[in-house]
């Protein structure tokens, strides 16, 4: 892995799923982990928000000598200030999480950055295999544990999926000793967000299975009958070769064999 | 014309009526059975004979099967000509003649078919469409399609972009197509599934390109207000409904009581696409072979499952490896110690969501069937043609598991060998060139 590329990892304040306390965000932690394995201490870790937040020390405790913070109120829009930073500082790869654990959790930030910068964005990355000649080979995490290999040209933005290697443990002492380089942020208020009404999440109603039957007998049948597919093809007389071929054709048609 | 009206005229036979009323008449039974169902009273009213309804059950008690009566009476009333048509249930049409507006639904189409998530969103699109007159719900889908029931899922118009350039991972080409649709139709709403199957990714790209702020993880939507989940699903955000929405599963009920036109809608050739083709910054290198046994059972796409009907376990494992399938098992196979516990499928094991479930020597006990309720295609290999798994299966093979698995392994190995040959040949060619 050539150490002469600039990797920036964007971090945010996470939220513990049970207690709701601030923590190192799961996917951002993985993004930092990936950056550290790629370029080691040359990694730039960037946060837009309050530099006093103790959670930032948890990121620093992963072995970072320093952290860059763009100082602004944590409710402000982060896109414009990050854009300014990325335009000013030469960057090859930007790593982010897929979705933040606080705020709107829309996952739009990397897309907005990519659109404004005109860089390609690779979503849900599980691994960055190699970076060579201005191109990177990355593995995307698809549902059902599948992986897709994609070649992308530098500079690019990658969102890191939960399938990427887990973040290393954070050490308290080194975390407290890390230096923060603090730059001034934009403090552009997010007006639209202010207008929204936010309330604790209501449990969603479970979908009921409603049977639209005309008669009571039909409803009874629907409630008691075993769900039977019916209409399936049954092969009895054919030779084993033909039967196996029929199954194999179905597997090919469904594209589970590639 | 006059003949027709004569035929239509009600002709009464007083003698037959008299015999039908007289239960002691020697011809009473024959007359009744001759004019079963349709009997007219003196005023021409349709008469039902309660004594003729139902049948005598095994213990001598009269039984009435209402469900059957309804269907047979319905067919008789419809007359001879229409009786054949009446059997196929036909849903009422929902027709949009000249759409004044459009709602675009961009479907995931996993495996070429509409997912349940897609269908829910089509249902929601119709809810939104009722708020204005003459709005057509348009389904936009990419790549190959195996779906045959677009009309029943609520698709008024269909934009199917089947070109090679949209296959696989092609966000740039797909985005260019969506942009083209945007300029051509300017839809009222863009609806996407907020899913890991690419819906959320494409929606975010479109939103960033168009400069709209989308609603993500939306689950309650009407024309004015939207309720979304936020902050890792711990809060609800109520906001005005934007043009681009990413919707959670079960955001609305799917369409099930109307039929739709599903007319193809043409879009202009993609100029932007051709321009960007040369300078594509992302290149799809295809899917990577993953170790199928490392995929969690609940997530696996293709499961080869073994039951009590497997006798040669080495052969079963070899078949799973050759087919690249994740291994599953019935409880009996696990209890007997042939398979580890975490491979058990069913009520007391794992509920699987595989697209293809290949059950070998599994009888299909209800505890097992519960676990495979969400599978799309079930294939059964069993010696017993009457077992429940064969009834559930889309393709059932009545044969000994040994023989079929051996053949399948052979086929899979031959397929892989031929694929490797062609790929190495291609490699040589590109080396030479
Ligand atoms: C509380 C409870 C929970 C349970 N939970 C589960 C569960 O989670 N999962 C589960 O699987 N079961 C569960 N069971 C057990 C379930 O009821 C059945 O006993 C079990 O699923 C049967 O497994 P089987 O189909 O492999 O075996 P069998 O019922 O013995 O079926 C074997 C099948 O293989 C066929 N066969 C035999 N020889 C061959 C051959 N040479 N070639 C091809 N086919 C052949 C036979 O025709 C038969 O259909 C549960 C039971 C209880 C009571």
UniProtKB/TrEMBL annotation, chain A:
Annotated family: Belongs to the ETF beta-subunit/FixA family.
GO function terms (MF aspect): electron transfer activity
Keyword NADP: no
Protein name: Electron transfer flavoprotein subunit beta
Species assigned in the record: Marinomonas hwangdonensis
SUPFAM superfamilies reported for this sequence: Adenine nucleotide alpha hydrolases-like
Annotated signal peptide: none
Domain spans labelled Electron transfer flavoprotein alpha/beta-subunit N-terminal: 30-168
Keyword terms: Electron transport, Transport
Residue numbers spanned by region Disordered: 221-240
Pfam families (UniProt xref): ETF
UniProtKB/TrEMBL annotation, chain B:
Xref: SUPFAM superfamilies: Adenine nucleotide alpha hydrolases-like, DHS-like NAD/FAD-binding domain
Keywords carried by this UniProt record: Electron transport, Transport
One BP term from GO: fatty acid beta-oxidation using acyl-CoA dehydrogenase
Any matching Pfam family: ETF
InterPro entries assigned: DHS-like_NAD/FAD-binding_dom (IPR029035), ETF_a/b_N (IPR014730), ETF_a/FixB (IPR001308), ETF_asu_C (IPR014731), Rossmann-like_a/b/a_fold (IPR014729)
Ranges of residues in domain Electron transfer flavoprotein alpha/beta-subunit N-terminal: 103-277
Protein name per Swiss-Prot or TrEMBL: Electron transfer flavoprotein subunit alpha/FixB family protein
Family to which the UniProt record says this protein belongs: Belongs to the ETF alpha-subunit/FixB family.
Organism from which the protein derives: Marinomonas hwangdonensis
One GO MF term: electron transfer activity
Presence of keyword Electron transport: yes
Keyword RNA-binding appears in the UniProt entry: no
Superkingdom, taxonomy of origin: Bacteria
